[in-house]
């Protein structure tokens, strides 16, 4: 134990290091917690690697151009996922068109223009935060009830599925956009207003361009989640077996997760291999979308 002298005849002992004391990081309980944390991370990572290897081993033989170009068939040797691929493109594209303008506009209003002291705005913010954690099947039921109220009899159409997916990811996009707007320093707004710009001009010309990386990242990740959803679409009666290409918003459709669900329920081993190959295809698309989000964030992100 070291000591230092501050006055004649007076010796003050140095403080004991925090990391070895009673409240330090080397306490047994802290070490146990750290070990359990690393153990849980290792188990999750091992399960993920095992699942990926299993899917790859199962579906590698079916990962050919026939999977992309052929229609579903009763013969697993001739079956493909072409309608599911096109259906996913239609569903996600329509979802993006419906969700992004509405979600970004709502976030801009709540963050830049809304009076946070009013009870109505507080109520909206609370509900947006809560809706982001609602299970996806609930949004399928909500979309089903809404379409039934409108008198729509055939609910397994592209616009119906896109509506359910819009309800699913809209709160996520609003929250992500608001976080991106908050990351813009207040000084940017104050400087623009001081130069005579209106609040709308400041938001449109300064705040929004500066927050594009965060908005784009959150939007792409939200669309990635929608791409992998099957539960809300199954509630709406999405087709699991079609032999035609979707060609419009009122067309019947299927998606990659639904096609995987259909093939995994078949008893033939060939369909299980097709499900594994389609899972690899879906996983590749999701990885590309996430990589795009990371690229946009790193390329255009500004450090204030």
UniProtKB/TrEMBL annotation:
Main location: membrane
Residues that span the membrane, as ranges: 31-57, 89-110, 131-151, 157-176, 226-244, 274-296
PROSITE patterns per the UniProt record, alphabetical: ABC_TM1
Residue span, ABC transmembrane type-1 domain: 85-293
InterPro entries: MetI-like, MetI-like_sf, Phosphate_PstA
Membrane topology designation: Multi-pass membrane protein
GO cellular component: plasma membrane
Gene Ontology BP annotations: phosphate ion transmembrane transport
Pfam families: BPD_transp_1 (PF00528)
Subcellular location: Cell membrane
Entry keywords, A to Z: Cell membrane, Membrane, Transmembrane, Transmembrane helix, Transport
Top-level taxon: Bacteria
Gene Ontology MF: a single term: phosphate transmembrane transporter activity
Keyword Chloroplast annotated: no
Family: Belongs to the binding-protein-dependent transport system permease family. CysTW subfamily.
Function, as annotated: Part of the binding-protein-dependent transport system for phosphate; probably responsible for the translocation of the substrate across the membrane.
Protein name: Phosphate transport system permease protein PstA
Species the sequence originates in: Microbacterium tenebrionis
Top-level taxonomy: Bacteria, Bacillati, Actinomycetota, Actinomycetes, Micrococcales
